[in-house]
Amino acid sequence: MNIENAQVQMRKGILEFCILHVISRGEVYASDMLDELTSARIMVVEGTLYPLLTRLKNAGLLDYKWVESSSGPPRKYYVLTDDGKQFLTAMQETWLDLADSVQTIIRKTNDAIQTQKTS
Fold this sequence. Notes:
- This is PadR family transcriptional regulator.
- It comes from Arundinibacter roseus.
- Residues 19-89 form the Transcription regulator PadR N-terminal domain.
- It is a single chain.
- By secondary structure, this protein is an alpha+beta fold.
- The chain has four helices and three strands.
- A three-stranded antiparallel beta sheet has the order 1-3-2.
- The two termini are 32 Å apart.
């Protein structure tokens, strides 16, 4: 099994959750999302982001508005809908439960390793 592939799959699994979080703070332009995700070391490219944004919009979780730009064409800014806010809240609860469960398993593994070392 390839570790890099496994890491990419883990990141993809939480990408939607992270995007919704970024948008939840207010109107956001797609390139600003890309910058934030990249700086958080969640690598994503435009070819991944835009289809995901379209899917989230089609699901009724996002909306957007066009804003004129003084330096080029109008920009599309994304916002969460009320359904999107509720969806994010449910995902947040799931994430916290999942993170706690994973930490429990990791802690038990680390404890077992420590016990083996001292035996």
